[in-house]
User: Fold these one by one.
Assistant:
Number 1:
Amino acid sequence: MSLISVRTRRPKHRAVDRLAELAAEKQSLINQLVGAAGHITRLELQLNESRAHRAEAEQVAACTAADLEERTEQLDEARAELATTRALLAPYLAAEATAGAVTVPEMERDTAAMEDQATEPINVLPLWEAHGISPVIRIADTPSNDPRTPSWVPSPDNETTQTLRVITA
């Protein structure tokens, strides 16, 4: 029997194929470089614009701070002048207030009319005290002829009556 060796073909590494791959990669990198250069240019323009805005804002802030200091000094001077003026005018204002004061004698309330009568506290009682009844119905002890016993209450000899017995102390 003869042995036949089966050999699989492996792709050959050809230099031409490798050169084509490298050329394609080179072209891709050049395209990326051009795109990156454009992007970098745009970012540098934005950076220059933001630096210009920052310089302008710093200048405005410096002017505002100087103006604030000036206004604060003016305010302090005005407050000091106002305090001095008030101290000078205080006696004159007090004399004017005293001269123009309206004095009224003490008032006495006329209570002759009924609606002006003084009131006294209202005596509020619970209903059972106001009507002379107790708050608890003692079912077991209540006679059947008592007018305060409701008609739905069972008679004292009923078993239900014994369980409803209420004892007050």
Note: The helical segments are 15-99, 127-130, 159-163.
Number 2:
Amino acid sequence: MMRHHAVEILLTRPLSPGELKRAGRNVPLAVNADRTRLMALQRAHGPGNALHTLRRRLDSRLPVDVLSTHYADRDGQVRLNLAFSRSDMAAIRRAATARGQRPAEFLSQQVTAAVAARERDRLHTLERRLEVLLADHTLDEVLVCASSALTRHRRAPR
């Protein structure tokens, strides 16, 4: 069954108003303030097909860097569509072969590991900053300040 899939489009540079207008004639697009990220709906049988179809429709019109599904799939995964150069693909194939994997499997593991490492690094940075705060302030002061800041930054429920 064909469904609509929300796709986020990351661009290599901001779009000019003319580029946006021309691309919008072919594919309805929502744009962010600095014109470097777009959203589109693509009808397809699955998220991978939606990304592939949208890549084919937009590649000649826009400086597309990455396409990604906006919502996770049934397995909780966000799909990515990246365009690699021939030399990049050759390097990926060599690395995958060296590990006895298919290129898609290799890339999936590498991206997952990089995201996990980034999350760990961000958590460690936050913990170090908290340690600095606790060196100069009491736990109660830090908690009251954090509570106040979180209350000010609370977003309306979706």
Note: The radius of gyration is 21 Å.
Number 3:
Amino acid sequence: MTTMAQEHDTPPVEVTTDSLPIDVECIRDGLIHALTLPLATTTREDIDASVHQIRGHLNLLMGEELGYDSEPAVRDLFRQAYALLDLGRLPSEETPVFETFAYLRDTARVAQRLLDVFDEFRRAPVHGPDMQPHPGSA
């Protein structure tokens, strides 16, 4: 039986976003959903909700180590992502639905490409000048 004193003696576990893993499948599902929304039958509220979700995914992926310093293609993706995340580009209530829809698709495409880079990066065997490849990566 746990006593009250024992519960209080246990130090709290601090969980930060840095310690949480990225759920690739959840992000991929959100991106597929955003990219397959039909403009003709999707409400503005649904488009706005998807924009919010995809911007969150994009921000999350940009916080990961994706080879920015060594890969020009990744640097280009980051430039595109920063341009899309610029608050000046964020659609407002006055933005026409089609422009908001186009913004959603552009943002989802860049997020998809960053997710692909993230997935490749996390699956790649770790190599260094004095390191052996991970077992089973040959």
Note: The helical segments are 4-9, 24-36, 44-62, 72-85, 97-123.
Number 4:
Amino acid sequence: MSAETDPRPLVGEPLALDLLNTRWIHEGERQDLLTGVDGARIWLASTGLDDRFDADATTLRHLLQARDAIGAIVDSPGDAAAAARVDEVLGHGRIRATLTSEGPGEHAEFDDVAWGPAWLAARNYLELLSTAPDRIRACSHDACILHFFDTSRNGTRRWCSMAICGNRAKASRHYARTKTT
């Protein structure tokens, strides 16, 4: 895997969901970008965090912990144990209020800089919950494990990508209709 190539079918979602989407299904096989430091480097570059954080084994370990925690709470909203896992990640950083020449600001601080990307993803999950928790969605296609934040006007998006999963679903329905006639 080259450091420039992100093989994932869906990128550019909010940071928390983008981290979840480091796992996907390709031709029936589960894929995982974060199997090593090279994958962490690709993810950091894809999310624009590579200029602030290094991809190393410790950062990778923290990213995996955050991904599992966010995945648990997305799959079971309101579950106290899942929330505690997210809180564990959030416990490694904080927001410090600042006053700059441009006015009030915030600055993220971490116990250890290796927690930075994981903490930012967990923090982003909180922001999504504050914005529109009902718009955090899993793709409706049975063979897809990707997640997205529904930004459609009416909030009815069902697929991670209409071009991929939406077309698969339409083709399946068409095949089922033509098979029965």
Note: Helices lie at 15-20, 37-46, 57-75, 80-90, 116-131, 162-180.
